[in-house]
Write a structure and sequence with these properties.
Helix content: over 70%
Distance between the termini: 20 Å
Structural class: mainly alpha
Number of strands: 0
Strand content: under 5%
Order of helices and strands: HHHHHHHHH
Shape: elongated
CATH topology of the largest domain: Four Helix Bundle (Hemerythrin (Met), subunit A)
Radius of gyration: 24 Å
Number of helices: 9
């Protein structure tokens, strides 16, 4: 889900949630009644949508996702959907929205990417240790391309229509990569190019090892 869609979804859920809060039944003294009225299905749909959005944006062990999970599994839901759950979920949504607007979730995106790339590299490393050049090269090459694109995105450089070499040059021009770093990255990119063209005789298992090692440096230093 891109930023525009997230922004639109947040706005709609906040607006809908605010309306739902206003519709919650109150007694003659203005005190909220805890058993939701005949609109239970509408409230449940909204809660499910909020939970889905938070799970898309935040890590599964983040406060927002854990608190969301705690609320939707509250034992009171076994008998009835309470206004307590709706109000707490609305507060959680508003706090998550503020963090997202401040850029926190954008930073988190790259944390998630780094964690995912590490998983791929672990597999690539296992293939490398087993002397499986092709398998380790394919995984490493895929991670290299995505890593460079993520670094470019983080540096406000559009990857649209640009080759990997052009992105590397753009990162040098912006001061993200040094000229020396760019030369090393381009060596790793050559392994990626040979891999994608099935030119297996153009590199050996040691070159793949350097690619994997270099990728870990890039992820640690730039993501």
């Amino acid at each position: 889900m891109d930023n525009k869609k997230i922004r639109t979804r947040f706005s709609k859920l906040v607006k809908d949630g605010d309306q739902l809060i206003k519709e919650i039944p109150r007694d003659q003294f203005g005190i909220v009644e805890f058993i939701i009225d005949e609109n239970t299905q509408k409230y449940q749909k909204w809660i499910s949508s909020v939970a889905n959005l938070l799970n898309v944006i935040y890590l599964h062990d983040s406060y927002y996702v854990e608190e969301c999970e705690r609320l939707i599994t509250d034992k009171t839901l076994k008998s009835a959907l309470t206004s307590y759950i709706v109000q707490r979920m609305f507060g959680l949504l508003e706090a998550a929205h503020e963090d997202w607007k401040s850029g926190f979730a954008n930073k988190l995106e790259f944390t998630i990417a780094a964690a995912t790339f590490d998983d791929f590299l672990d597999h690539a490393e296992q293939y490398h240790k087993s002397n499986k050049k092709k398998e380790s090269a394919v995984l490493g090459s895929a991670v290299l391309e995505d890593t460079i694109k993520k670094i470019a995105s983080k540096s406000n450089i559009s990857a649209a229509g640009q080759s990997l070499e052009e992105l590397i040059n753009a990162l040098v021009k912006k001061g993200v990569f040094t000229p020396v770093k760019s030369k090393r990255v381009k060596v790793w990119a050559s392994v990626r190019n040979h891999t994608f063209h099935a030119e297996w005789d153009k590199f050996d298992i040691r070159d793949v090892g350097e690619l994997i090692k270099g990728l870990r440096e890039l992820i640690e230093d730039f993501l």
